[in-house]
Amino acid sequence: MLKKLIQMLSPKNPAHPTPQQTPYQLIGGEEATRRLANRFYDIMTTAPEAAELYAIHPLPLDTIRQKFFEFLSGWLGGPGLFEQKYGHPRLRMRHMPFTVNPTLRDQWMFCMNQALSEVVADPVLRGGLSEALGQLASHMINQDEKGRPR
């Protein structure tokens, strides 16, 4: 692992995404992507800051953890596992039956940022992923805080 990290940070192999080196590869491939998905849900189930978010998820979380891993795999530039099983993610459409307001988006990002801080070592890459995921999470918002459609 240390050797891989050193290679990632060396000038010959910059620690930022390129067409030849995806975020999926930079964070550590399948193992790190699965860890990111699992840590996200671990945090969501235990953090008081994410209580409302946790309350709207179906239990047990095993299926959704797997789907999230599959989605992240393709989104990060790795194998398109979600697309192979379910087709295009159509994330906004898939989330329309559920309330997604700014508070829930913020709780989602709280969990994701915590998971990113534990899984993604490079601060520049972590920041870029957080920003991109923040934009994605904001796109999912379908109601304001008063329950009015957006």
Detailed description of the structure:
There is one protein chain. The protein has 150 residues and is an all-alpha fold. Helix content is 64%, strand content 0%. It is globular. It starts with a helix and ends in an 11-residue tail after the last helix.
Biggest sheet character:
none
Q: Proportion of β residues?
A: under 5%
Our count of helices gives: 9
The pLDDT mean sits at 90
Assign an overall shape: globular
Quaternary state, please? single chain
Derived from helix and strand composition plus strand pairing, the structural class reads mainly alpha
Radius of gyration: 16 Å
Poorly predicted residue ranges: 1-11
- The rounded distance between the terminal residues' Cα atoms is 45 Å
Helix-strand topology string: HHHHHHHHH
Number of strands: 0
Helix content: 55-70%
